[in-house]
Amino acid sequence: KQEVTQIPAALSVPEGENLVLNCSFTDSAIYNLQWFRQDPGKGLTSLLLIQSSQREQTSGRLNASLDKSSGRSTLYIAASQPGDSATYLCAVKGSYIPTFGRGTSLIVHP
Amino acid sequence: EAQVTQNPRYLITVTGKKLTVTCSQNMNHEYMSWYRQDPGLGLRQIYYSMNVEVTDKGDVPEGYKVSRKEKRNFPLILESPSPNQTSLYFCASSSPGLAGGGDTQYFGPGTRLTVL
């Protein structure tokens, strides 16, 4: 059964720092991997989707990479801002049932 | 505006009283899913649907029913709610994407359910 782990569970950084969030998974037979952002009490907002044939995706200050063979993905956030404070979730899809990590709770303080 | 809507957003009910949470999407997506989110357990899929009249169980289907009579709607039914179904529920939709594995998932705003 697929297991998804996100490290660290929580992170607090000063504004302007570049940071990396990690997502690891146990079964490399996946269709895609998706990174989401969740604000308190709100739904999930898709940030980036990486198909299994891709190595990375970029959107603005965000860059996500995928290494299927090692079962790892990273989300890189450049020049962090207080508005980036949220919980970041990765979801791995190997079938019709995606497996979510528990998330990394990020606080960016001014 | 492309969106997934859920109703109600908040619901407090009592054990055994049947309820339905509605979900609707306006993006003509084939795939729709229901999830529950619990502290310490993360997001878990309850049911999913690949198209009209095609549904299947996710990781935690016990105590739930779904139907997909129209492409845009995917209601979640709790025939006899129990306190352990107190949770935050999300509906999501996507297109099939490459090789049918699914494209970007769009989530609704969530329904917070409390069963007393």
Spans of chain A of at least 5 consecutive residues whose pLDDT stays below 50 are none
Task: Give the C-alpha Rg of chain A.
Answer: 13 Å
**Sheet with the most strands of chain B?**
7 strands, mixed
Number of helices of chain B: 0
Can you count the beta strands of chain A? 11
Shape of chain B: globular
Helix content of chain B: under 10%
Strand-residue proportion of chain A: over 45%
Secondary structure: number of strands of chain B? 11
Helix content of chain A: under 10%
Could you say which overall geometry of chain A the principal axes of the C-alpha atoms support? globular
**Approximately what portion of the residues of chain B adopt beta-strand conformation?**
over 45%
The biggest beta sheet of chain A, please?
6 strands, mixed
* Unreliable stretches covering 5 or more consecutive residues of chain B: none
Q: What is the first-to-last residue Cα distance of chain A? A: 41 Å
Radius of gyration of chain B: 14 Å
Can you describe what's shown?
The complex is a heterodimer of chains A (110) and B (116). Chain A is mainly beta and 110 residues long. The mean pLDDT of chain A is 94. Chain B is an all-beta fold. Chain B has no helices and eleven strands. In chain B, a hairpin with a 3-residue loop joins strand 4 and strand 5. The mean pLDDT of chain B is 93. Chains A and B meet through strand 4, strand 5 and strand 9 of A and strand 5 and strand 10 of B.
